[in-house]
């Protein structure tokens, strides 16, 4: 056992790292290249993804039941608000209108009117009431004469009084009947209006959206009129359609402007604001950014996902973008100035620690930093660096904190 010790000692000595020099002199300087820490203006952005949707999307259903007589549009057609899309067979509704009109005419004729009066109407002009009024006046005059006749008996006076009371009752009954006839006429007119509306509803029109004001606000006063694109045609000529339960006949989409609803992490609630500019990219147009803006921010943060939703509107007058497409949005939030940046080659990462070597005279000082925004030729530094500092961009394999350097 004692004979093995010299061998072990030799092995240990052989594994000892070589000294820099037998005299303890400092290693030679490390040749490095350097670059200045450049202040830059940095545009802060937030990236989100989502699916494009139409500015307005509506599923059209018929207002009346019936069999389709004609279909005027198909998928992909552009239609204006109010344009006729399909027609339902109107025969039954025309017959109903005729019946309702005849019933109204008969009701009006019973009180000697050719048209329903507008505004307040005095029933005293109705012939039925005028006849009753004449009888009442005649009875009243007869009663007055009987009262002044000296030779009239009590029986004749009572009879005249009774005739007057009957005439007054008949007048009241005539007024009530005239008012009832007038009310019935108004009801008949309402029935006629309803049947005429149902006849008009046999033509299904493209809706006139209430978002017209919002539309003008998005695209400006010189924007083209809002119009729809037929996304789906769901029926054909001869099909039976119903208003209840509803039969879907068309899906309409406004594509002149699209919406993108994106979900963002809670930490960005203070950075996003209505009106901010957005750049939208889709796979179909690689390298082309479509402009948009933030138009709505939902006020509630989801308690489960810790996210909130924003709505972005993208003008699409040329029709290049399509609803349903996947899109990536870059929200331009704010612009920061005097942000320190260095070339990407100056960033050195080892064991999860990111640092740069700051040149201090003929020494390299290791400084731990965080990395922010990245571009092709520069990287944002987050950390304390002296103004006008220079950093090493090469020689990291030989550099340590405090190493002597030589600038190439």
Write up this protein:
There is one protein chain. The chain is of the alpha+beta class. The chain folds into 4 domains: 26-41 and 338-407, conserved putative lor/sdh protein from methanococcus maripaludis s2 fold (Beta Barrel); 47-52 and 256-335, Beta Barrel (Elongation Factor Tu (Ef-tu), domain 3); 55-90 and 203-252, OB fold (Dihydrolipoamide Acetyltransferase, E2P); 91-200. It contains 5 helices and 21 strands. The chain has helices spanning 5-15, 91-109, 127-148, 154-200, 212-219, and strands at residues 30-32, 34-36, 38-60, 66-71, 78-79, 84-88, 203-205, 228-233, 240-241, 250-265, 277-282, 290-297, 307-315, 326-342, 348-350, 353-360, 363-368, 370-374, 379-382, 390-392, 403-407. The chain has a 6-stranded antiparallel beta barrel. The longest helix is centred in the middle third of the chain and has 47 residues, at 154-200.
* Separation, N- and C-terminal Cα atoms: 56 Å
Shape: elongated
Strand element count? 21
Give the number of helices.
5
Quaternary structure state of the chains depicted: single chain
Strand content: 35-45%
Whole-angstrom Rg: 46 Å
Task: Describe the strand arrangement of the main beta sheet, using strand numbers.
Answer: 3-10-13-12-11-14
Regions with little confidence, pLDDT below 50 for 5+ residues: 5-22
Largest sheet: 6 strands, antiparallel, barrel
Tell me the layout of helices and strands.
Layout: H1 5-15, E1 30-32, E2 34-36, E3 38-60, E4 66-71, E5 78-79, E6 84-88, H2 91-109, H3 127-148, H4 154-200, E7 203-205, H5 212-219, E8 228-233, E9 240-241, E10 250-265, E11 277-282, E12 290-297, E13 307-315, E14 326-342, E15 348-350, E16 353-360, E17 363-368, E18 370-374, E19 379-382, E20 390-392, E21 403-407
Parallel strand pairs: 1-21
Antiparallel strand pairs: 2-20, 3-10, 3-14, 4-6, 4-9, 5-8, 6-7, 8-10, 10-13, 11-12, 11-14, 12-13, 14-19, 15-16, 16-17, 17-21, 18-19
Helix pairs in contact: 2-4, 3-4
């Amino acid at each position: 056992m004692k004979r093995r010790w010299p061998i072990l000692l030799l092995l240990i000595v052989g594994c000892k790292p070589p000294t820099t020099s037998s005299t303890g002199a400092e290693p030679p300087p490390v040749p490095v290249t350097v670059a200045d820490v450049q202040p830059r203006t940095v545009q802060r952005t937030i990236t989100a993804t989502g699916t494009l949707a139409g500015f307005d999307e509506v599923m059209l259903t018929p207002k009346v039941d019936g069999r389709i007589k004609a279909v005027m549009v198909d998928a992909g057609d552009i239609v204006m608000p109010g344009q006729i899309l399909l027609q339902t067979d109107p025969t039954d509704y025309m017959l109903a209108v005729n019946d309702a009109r005849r019933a109204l005419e008969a009701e009006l004729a019973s009180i000697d009117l050719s048209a329903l009066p507008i505004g307040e109407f005095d029933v005293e002009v109705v012939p039925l009431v005028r006849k009753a009024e004449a009888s009442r006046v005649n009875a009243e005059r007869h009663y007055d004469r009987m009262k002044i006749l000296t030779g009239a008996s009590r029986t004749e006076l009572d009879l005249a009084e009774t005739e007057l009371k009957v005439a007054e009752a008949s007048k009241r009954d005539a007024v009530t009947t005239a008012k009832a006839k007038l009310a019935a006429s108004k009801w008949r007119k309402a029935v006629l209006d309803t049947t005429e509306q149902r006849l008009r509803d046999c033509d299904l029109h493209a809706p006139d959206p209430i978002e017209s004001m919002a539309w003008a606000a998005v695209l400006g006063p010189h924007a083209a009129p809002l119009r729809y694109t037929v996304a789906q045609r769901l029926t054909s000529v001869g099909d039976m359609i119903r208003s209840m339960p509803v039969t879907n006949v068309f899906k309409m989409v406004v594509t002149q402007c699209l919406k993108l609803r994106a979900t963002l992490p809670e930490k960005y609630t203070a950075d996003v604001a209505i009106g901010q500019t957005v750049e939208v990219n889709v796979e179909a147009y690689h390298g082309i950014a479509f402009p948009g803006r933030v138009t709505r921010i939902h006020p509630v943060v989801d308690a489960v996902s810790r996210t909130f939703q924003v709505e972005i509107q993208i003008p699409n007058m040329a029709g290049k973008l399509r609803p349903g497409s996947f899109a990536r949005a870059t929200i331009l939030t704010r612009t920061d100035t005097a942000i320190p940046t260095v070339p990407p080659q100056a960033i050195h990462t080892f064991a999860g620690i990111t640092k740069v070597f700051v040149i201090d005279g003929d020494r390299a000082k290791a400084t731990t930093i965080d990395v922010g925004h990245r571009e092709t030729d520069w990287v944002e530094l987050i950390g304390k660096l002296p103004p006008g500092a220079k950093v090493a961009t090469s020689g990291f394999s030989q550099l340590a904190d405090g190493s002597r350097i030589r600038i190439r």
